[in-house]
Amino acid sequence: MLFRLSKIKNEEAVSEVVGTILILAITVVLFATVFVYVQQVPLATAPEQVTIYQEISYDANSHVLYENLSDKGGSILLRSETYLIVLVNNVEYSSVLTSLQVSDPYGNASKYFEPGDSILWNSSSIGAKVSNGSKINSILFYKSTNQVLWQSENDLPVQYLLTDLFALQGSQGTGNETIFHHLLSAKHWQM
After folding, report:
1. What DSSP state is assigned to residue 131?
2. CA–CA separation, 64 vs 98, rounded Å?
3. pLDDT, tens digit, 9 for 90 and up, residues 146-155
4. Which of 11, 16, 48, 177 gives 20 to 30 Å between its CA and that of 75?
5. pTM of the predicted model, to two decimals?
């Protein structure tokens, strides 16, 4: 009978060890589950930002709107993911930056839209005729983050006579690039 008592005491000790191991195993499994879940949650990213300087000119004779958007600072964006959306009287004309003329001050054809670059857009490239009094909305949209980076709203209340619009060929940086100058000797008159 003594043998039996000592056997029962040993089984109780085994039961406590098994219980402790089970609690540790459950804790490790719970920790691993929470760790895997947290690793799959995407990190918060800062929104993209750009500072855009806009120049608009209008040639009343040919009904062409010229828009020059210069990036004065901010995020470096992929051109293939950046869209210029221009609404002329609520009719949308959308273009990805890779299909537009982008001037780069360094003369390299980069895949990025970065500070110092300028987007050169005109309404004749899309076949749109703009008339005096048109409402012009411009939006710069970044597809990667589904974010409107910049937007403007302009009306053409006066008629402009565009006297000088020409391209200068220059050799700067790594090679030749075309530098567009919009010299606007604008004469205003009321319609």
Report:
1. -
2. 22
3. 899 999 998 8
4. 177
5. 0.59
